[in-house]
Design a protein that fits this description.
about 55% helix; three-stranded antiparallel β-sheet; single chain; 5 strands
Length: about 130
């Protein structure tokens, strides 16, 4: 005997809910995996390039720049908005790039997770109709 249209619609709705929940959990595990396998740059940071003049000319240097002071200074331990990275390709620069890449991936995944949460909320509302 075939399913009634209402029963088929309910089954379809539950399948869609399961798909959304499954993807949300997978993305959340991915975020945890990024945190566990990488150092992650603090939220709101960016890499800034600046020009320094020396005796032999001008040089481009890089720094990690935060909106608020979060980086301890070497001398007195006070907090600064900047963390010097040196020239492009230096170890500090490469580490900061890895950290920024991890942060960007997490933020993108977080946006997707939020969209899935909204979709799940909509589907749950649909079940109450």
């Amino acid at each position: 005997m075939s399913k009634t249209p209402k029963l088929a619609a309910q089954e379809d709705l539950h399948k869609r809910i399961d798909k959304v929940v499954s993807m949300k959990k997978r993305l959340e595990r991915e975020v945890v995996g990024i945190h566990e396998s990488n150092q992650v740059a603090p939220s709101g940071c960016r890499i800034a390039r600046y020009l320094a003049k020396g005796r032999k000319g001008v040089y481009w240097y890089y720094k990690l720049h935060a909106a608020t002071p979060i980086f301890p200074t070497r001398i007195d331990g006070k907090l600064s908005k900047y963390k010097h990275l040196g020239k492009a390709g230096s170890q500090a620069y490469m580490n900061a790039m890895e950290q920024m890449t991890a942060r960007t991936r997490i933020e993108a995944l977080d946006r997707s997770i939020e969209a899935l949460k909204q979709g799940l909320k909509d589907l749950v509302e649909e079940t109450s109709k």
